[in-house]
Amino acid sequence: MSILLGEKEYFKGVGKIQFEGQESDNPLAFRFYDENRVIAGKTMKEHFKFAIAYWHSFCGSGLDPFGGPTHHYEWDKSSDVIQRAKDKADAAFEFITKIGAPYYCFHDLDVVDQDNDAVVYKKRVETMTDVLKAKQDASGVKLLWGTANLFSHERYMNGASTNPDFNVLAHAGAQLKGAIDATIALGGEGYVFWGGREGYMSLLNTNMKREREHFAQMLHTCVEYARRNGFKGKFFIEPKPSEPSKHQYDFDSATVIGFLREFGLMEHFGINLEVNHATLAGHTFAHECQVAADAGMLASLDANRGDAQNGWDTDQFPVDVYEWTEAMLILLGAGGLAGGGINFDAKRRRNSTDMEDLFYAHIGGMDTIARALIIADKITQHGEYHRLKAGRYASFDSGKGAEFEAGKLKLEDLFAIASEVQPVQISGRQEYLENLIGRFI
């Protein structure tokens, strides 16, 4: 077998997934995602930079708090740590190339099992970095971003960079170094920080000010190391409000932007947004996209969804075309993603146990997002949506409104204007705009 497929074929009976168009009845084909179709000056492949998430796709077991694993993998059977990791890499690149995604992304622990000895684990990561590099060279698949899992090991029960024990923080630093080294060696276009346990369970035992300062110092330390060692890509922070921590310091887009500004990190970072995290923060996905876009930091996206009946991070594959159409309108308005792409931080359901289910899930997600981009572009070209939205603020485009925006009016001036005019009630036309988007869908 080739370096690409390894010793065996894991996804037998599935060939390269092709675009067949909207009329196709083939469940293993794309209906909307045509990677070569040009929308707003870029191909879909360039717009999305779809990346397969190593963790859920090739490590997820279907485990939940009430039952054991239901997903059992042929590539997970060897008793040898490195051989098992190599088998997983074979399966991963077979899937990635068959689904036709140009990128992948990973946590360090996804690629190879962790070891308590930092030196041993460093060697494991370096070995697998060489394996992944050979896979990339053989397939043309690229690394969108890497990251370190600083939340699963028991030592991180009180956080990693924000842990009250410096020795734990040092282990986090060692792990970050290894993940950054791997990302650089693999030509990763970005590096993500997700503070899975960078937060608190109780303020009774937490010095929040000190923990936030330690978090910022670790980010500065990582940026300095990566730049000194040749990393040219973008750093991302992925907001999440809670779970597993009660309160996380990267709560939402606005919180992250404020944090980066406070600690002088804005120039190095963009935001990697996740749909389900927006939901947990009490926001819509569109809200989080707009906040990031307004700050020039809409950089990368985790594509998934939550469940309205479950108050946790269910990480289901995206199917809501309306939700993604709203997001694509914002993305097009921002000129695209600033340095990142779209990865599927999503997992098959516990009872979806056929290997083909992994293909169905990704095909559906990629088609949902592609369809949303097509619709958003049609809405943009039609023009009415943007005209109506801009028209609500027409009073600021000239006259006294424009002078206010320019900072030329004093509070006394506003009083004088108010004493002479009365505002006329103007409808927000929300239902009309909702129907307008629905019409294009």
TrEMBL record:
Its cofactor is Mg(2+). Mg(2+) 1 binds at E238, E274, D302, D345. One of its GO terms (molecular function) is magnesium ion binding. Coiled coil: none annotated. One of its GO terms (cellular component) is cytoplasm. It is found in: Cytoplasm. Keywords: Carbohydrate metabolism, Cytoplasm, Isomerase, Magnesium, Metal-binding, Xylose metabolism. One of its GO terms (biological process) is D-xylose metabolic process. Binds 2 magnesium ions per subunit. Pfam families: AP_endonuc_2. The active site is at H107, D110. Its main location: cytoplasm. InterPro entries: Xyl_isomerase-like_sf (IPR036237), Xyl_isomerase-like_TIM-brl (IPR013022), Xylose_isom_bac (IPR013452), Xylose_isomerase (IPR001998). Its EC number is 5.3.1.5. Homotetramer. Belongs to the xylose isomerase family. PANTHER family: PTHR48408, XYLOSE ISOMERASE (PTHR48408:SF1). This is Xylose isomerase. The lineage of its organism: Bacteria, Pseudomonadati, Bacteroidota, Cytophagia, Cytophagales.
